[in-house]
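ugh finaly. both done.
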Amino acid sequence: MKTSDFDYVLPPERIAQTPPPERGVSRMLVLHRDTGMIEHRHVGDIVQYLRPGDSMLFNDTRVFSARAFGHWEDTPGRVEVLFVEPSGLRPGAWTALCRSSRPALPGRTMVLANGEIRATVLEKSARDGHLDLRLEYTGDLFEILDRTGVPPVPPYIRRGPGDPRTNLDRERYQTVYARETGAVAAPTAGLHFSEVLLRRIDEAGVRRAFVTLHVGPGTFRPVKTDTVEDHVMDSERYEVPQSAADAVAAAHAAGGRVFAVGSTTVRTLETVAAANDGRIVAGKGRSSIFIYPPFRFRAVDAMLTNFHLPQSTLLMMVSALAGRERVLAAYEEAIREGYMFYSYGDCMLIV
């Protein structure tokens, strides 16, 4: 299958640069998988598509302010670092991406976060462009970064130095139920949910549960291969608690449906299902699953998701669930109808 089969043209003005005034008011395009019928609603209407016995699964990862700034210890040269995750190379080491006017060679040290973090380059990782850094700091790393760093909003959300919208990002580029710190990108379908909307879902007799998948920068990595099958996904850490496994089992036993909020929740559930003959079991690991047409979904029946970039792995996943032609037709209609796209944009419910 050609990567170009998942292309479409999006006017730049349709890329949302700020979140909506409040959570729960975004537009929601509803795509029916069986017929291709499209409805134009708002995300608060999602309750009308739920019924008792259904389960709704969310990703409770918490985004930390992973982008830190500083300079090289021996020069005033500016350094920008995006912390990704603990590297596992040795205690205290982290994997990161670095932007600098000088090469990040092993042994060189950066001074970051107003001097609160020293980061020494250990080596270049086998992963494309990643470094392994040995960190020195006092206190809690996430607290330091949340106080001195910048939320890692995606590159299509334009933020210059000192942009006042950065303070808005600290609040709104985070779900209201975020709990487990470790993501460098938000599970953006979850950004639409307010506490009020979550209570309405509970009142509808729908079981809610959480998985955790710490979203990495690979979620924005473009597919550079001509054929879809040749692309290799970055792996990401996940955890499925027993409560989530029970929620999926209960929905299937009752003849209900499993609604996944966001692509990260889909990846987590389908990774576990693929390894356990279709069952969801509690546990943790890393997911590198690549979902594209044709794909047999074994856990997820319906999905709430944002609109995704052309030729992206996320668009391919959505196409696997609802059909490439129907999804691209829905995107064309969304553009005609003035929907806003990507992380801070409107959403799409596939039922």
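ok and the 2nd:
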Amino acid sequence: MGLNPYMNRNNPWNSYRQVATQTASPGQLVLMLFDGAVRFLEQALLGFPVEDPLERIQTINNNILRAQDIINELNYSLDLRQGGHLAETLRGLYEYFDRRLTESNVRKTSDGIEEVLVHIRTLRDAWSSMLSQAGQTRAAQTADLCAVG
């Protein structure tokens, strides 16, 4: 019986991913989730030109389901009380993404995947920019504190 090397606990890649997720800030974790959703949606799109019907369906279906799992995790982690209007807007977007991906999966069409991919990339880039700016602000504040005195 062959074992999947990616499931092996001694696999260096699994160790790296586990440490990365355990040491990442909440903001970095969200960025990692966006990156994962993009990766799975891109993989789903690669299934459309596959000629073997079983492989085509499995590639599309499995990757859409993985992307939906990530989108649902992003949705469920929203704090509507503290997040206010932005959290409500994101919840609506995530639910829309989930519906569009379900439609694409059932119909085996790429249009919903492509649409969601554009939006997820936009959210990912905005999130990355926000994290970068927050990091620069913290660095400037630290430099100011060090300069005082």
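summary for the 2nd one i guess: The two ends are 67 Å apart (CA to CA).
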